[in-house]
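Need residues for this backbone.
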């Protein structure tokens, strides 16, 4: 998780700098530089920055769930297991689709954040199922929703617990997310396999 954060920080920071330098007007303020963009330039800059962030997040999700699914399969895993994402292109495509829908719904006054939570719930199993079964993005979206429909009660419980775990991690100055993130993702992986009838390896001493 620490490597994920560092890579995202470096690549994301470099991309933001590049987008700002290409689109914005650069001005010097007290020896530093400030990027200013108005109108279409600002919209394009935000869109590009959001797209880059979503792609990076999708790469992390694909990598993380690849390792977690190996654990569920009972395979021997190492750090390297979490840097070999499977079906990455389709995970990225699904992530972009989900991000676009979420951002559009976020524009709805008063209901935006609620809509984002609902979308998060309905797509909770999308990345695991795409990575696990090698499905195309659209089929993964459909199958992820279908798995939730099979047991809505346990799906809601899993989602709520995962959010609470992430919240506790975030409260610990954000550093706790380095532990809370994988734990919440492992819970989602376990629930996905159980609800879909897949394998969950037994505990080993």
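Answer:
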């Amino acid at each position: 998780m620490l490597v994920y954060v560092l890579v995202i920080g470096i690549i994301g920071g470099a991309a933001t700098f590049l987008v700002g330098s290409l689109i914005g007007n650069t001005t010097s303020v007290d020896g530093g530089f400030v990027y200013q963009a108005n109108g279409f330039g600002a919209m394009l800059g935000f869109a590009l920055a959001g797209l880059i962030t979503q792609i990076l997040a999708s790469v992390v999700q694909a990598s993380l769930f690849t390792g977690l699914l190996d654990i569920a399969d009972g395979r021997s895993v190492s750090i390297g297991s979490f840097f070999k994402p499977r079906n990455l292109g389709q995970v990225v495509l699904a992530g972009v689709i989900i991000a676009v829908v979420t951002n559009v719904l976020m524009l709805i006054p008063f209901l935006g954040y609620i809509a984002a939570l609902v979308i998060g719930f309905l797509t909770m199993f999308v990345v695991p199922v795409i990575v696990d079964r090698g499905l195309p993005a659209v089929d993964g979206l459909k199958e992820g929703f279908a798995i939730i429909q099979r047991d809505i009660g346990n799906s809601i419980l899993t989602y709520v617990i995962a959010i609470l775990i992430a919240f506790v991690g975030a409260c610990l100055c954000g550093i706790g997310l380095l532990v809370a993130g994988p734990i919440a993702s492992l819970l989602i992986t376990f629930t996905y396999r159980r609800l879909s009838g897949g394998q969950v390896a037994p505990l080993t001493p």
